[in-house]
Amino acid sequence: MIVLLVAINGGFSHAQSDTDSIHHHYTIADHLGVPPEPTNKPVTSIKTKPNIETNSIIHTGQLDEPNSPQFGHLARLSGQKKTLTPQKRKQLDGLLVLNNSSQQAVPRNIQQQDSLPDINQEQPNSHSLNQQLQATKIQGSIASRIIDPNLFITKGAFLDCILETAISSDVAGMTRCQLSRDIYSTNGKVLLLEKGSHIVGEYQTGLEQGQARIFVLWDRIETPTGVILDLASPGTDSLGRSGHSGYVDGHFGQRFGSAMLLSLIGDVGTYYANKSKGNSNTIQFGDTIGGTKDLASIALQYSIHIKPTLYKNQGEHINVFVARDLDFRSVYELKLSQ
């Protein structure tokens, strides 16, 4: 009987304990509230890549072998093999931008220049048949038409002129001449440059040895009616040869006179020195004679570079070769005469 009562009492006690436990769980759940709904975004671990300083990597399918120990993990990726599979090569494309922010990516065309041959190097067969067969290509010309030939003086015309000033090439200077006849348009119908128009020119100093002509650039022309036109054309002679001829002074006396005089003095001293050899009372001037020869060579060294001078007198006839098309449409206008 006692055993039965204990068993019954224990069963009721166990049932009450289960009821208290369930009630306890309900109480905790009420305090925590409704649990949040799980999100669909999976949580992934973020791994930071080490800051790697790389040099330029060329798309060759192979890895360089840098000296820096920071590239050790790159060599272990392929098991010390340089040739990469296509999949790893695609992954390696991302490493091309792993340079520091202070460095810029090198363009591929610049990276590939190392493998290109140097075209500036001289080829052994510079006169080969392949090079001799290269034809010379000349750009063609397109014909055009003068808008109004009545108001143009075209390139190649001659202007006959008379010098009003003399020319000396010792010093650079200006000169002027006067047209000796009327100059008409290209078609010969309209008078554009009247007789008596003045042309102003300029020339440089000095002639080279052997030259007998001076170059004059005729710059501007002014007509009696007040028309001014930039000419910028060279002067010629009556046959069209460039430059103006004249009397040329070669300065022979100035170039060689002092040297010849000093040499003559030295020869006279040598003559008297040889003539009086045996006479114990004669004074020797050997050092003086040697110094005279040295002075002669020094004088010749400085005077030999004197340039010749060209003289051209006023009143002589010259020509000006028109080197550009002269357009008079801005100052002249044609009208029908009644």
UniProtKB/TrEMBL annotation:
Signal sequence annotation: none
Transmembrane keyword on record: yes
Pfam families: TrbI
Taxonomic superkingdom: Bacteria
UniProt entry tagged with the keyword Protein transport: no
Compartments where found: Cell membrane
Gene3D superfamilies on file: Type IV secretion system, VirB10/TraB/TrbI
UniProt keyword list: Cell membrane, Membrane, Transmembrane, Transmembrane helix
Family under the similarity heading: Belongs to the TrbI/VirB10 family.
NCBIfam families reported for this sequence: T4SS_VirB10
Protein's UniProt name: TrbI/VirB10 family protein
